[in-house]
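Throughout our pipeline, every protein is held as a single compact record rather than as scattered files. Nothing more is needed to write down the fold, since each code stands for a local backbone conformation. For reference, a complete record is included directly beneath this paragraph.
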Amino acid sequence: MAAEMHKFHKHQPQLERIEPFVVPPWWKRITTVVKKGEEAGKAHHDRIVEDFGHKSLIFYTDGSGYNGGVGAATYQPRQLTSKFVRQKLAYMGKETQSTVYLAELKGIHMSLEITLAQQVRKFTRVDIFTDNQAAIASSAWPQRQSGQWLLRQIAEQLKALQQQGINVNIHWIPAHTGVPGNEAADQLAKLAAEPPAPYTTAVFALRSPSPTVDSVAEPTEPTGDLVAEPVVAPATGYATVAPDSTGVTAPPALETATATAHPALEAAVTTVPTAASATVTAPAHARRPKAPRAPRGPNQPKRHTPRGPLRPTTNQAPFTTVAAQRMLAKKTTRQRWIDEWESAPHGRVLHHHLPKPEKATLDRYTSMKRAVSATVFQLRTGKIGLKDYLWQIRRTDSPQCSCGDRQTVRHVLLQCSRYNALREEVWASPGSGWKGPRPPTSTKEIWKSRRAKTAAIFLLRTGLLGRFTRAAVEDDPPQEPPQRAPERAPAGASPGLIQPSSAPA
């Protein structure tokens, strides 16, 4: 097993270490809200935006597993507390290293990261909307689980914001319900899952809605490092918006967000530029000095960017999660199980009924009595005490039935004329699982759970299996209630006397 885990973990970052605790018992939890149902969740979102939009910084986060990669994104629409539209993406590695759950946590982490970077704050609370309830529960109370290294960072961010008097709230929002911010985060997460994806913050502040972005308005206060950095890909120059071969286009919130946006949340209406249509100019005080360009190779295309040389970076998770490795081990083991079942020389009778192995097969026997479940299993494998099989293993002199045909499973269940009346009776019973006017005529029709049980009961009632009788399929006799143990006399009582109970009669 250790060799197999080494094989899974090969060429991956260091495996994460899970500690018993992430936060102390006295750690102050944040407020989390999870409503039941899509309508309730969406109504709660609208109420939060309407009641607290004037003093809250609102984020939408999402994680996505797409084309073998895992990406995370957070999206902050333009609102009363911020004139900027911010979006941040993170590539979390392949599905063998990260999970969508970890990407959801990363989206929350990036939202808090953007919040802590604000130097001039017009908000007193932060509201983060995500569609992953597991990430909400883990952020509120981190425990011994996968992704602790990220949960520890989130806990430190929450503590810092609490010390600054900022109230952080994480809400559940149903996915794909038409909320522009949530849809934008979903599209951005898919873009981030495409390796190599950039880990970049894009900030857009518009003077007025327009079909193209010609400039970025000068902000009235500095915004730190979170300034206009459109996500750029080496091939196209504008990976956030240019459609690629997979058909992924610009996020809806960056194109037509105001179509259904909440009145209290003014989202930006933009068509993010392509290299041929427009450019984005960063604020003068936020521009970085140009770095010397590295020499371009002979086959490397020229890159056009709004702000000097292209410097995309990836933010692959520093650890390989235990959850991802566990999923990989299960997937690999299941595929090996399928391959061995397909090529094995034995079990071909059962393979005819079960072409692919499945764990649900075991559940078919849990509700059956022992005699019935054993008979069902023997019927499926063909290794049962009928003359055809007994003759093959040299336990009887002839494979013939008393009617003259070979006594196979198919013959007894479907064809033997000696049991026509019993066959009609059993398959016509209400609990047989068969609705046809006549008994089944093919073995494929009887291998479902309830029908297989009926077939086993029919075979047991024929008496061909001598070690099982009809009593094995009848209802269990009622069990007598356990007798109550005699009461012990309390200390100090006379021997042989039972003291009356203090309970009312």
Remarks:
- Residues 347-472 form one domain.
- The first strand starts at residue 31 and ends at 33.
- The mean pLDDT is 72.
- The CA atoms of residues 125 and 167 lie 4 Å apart.
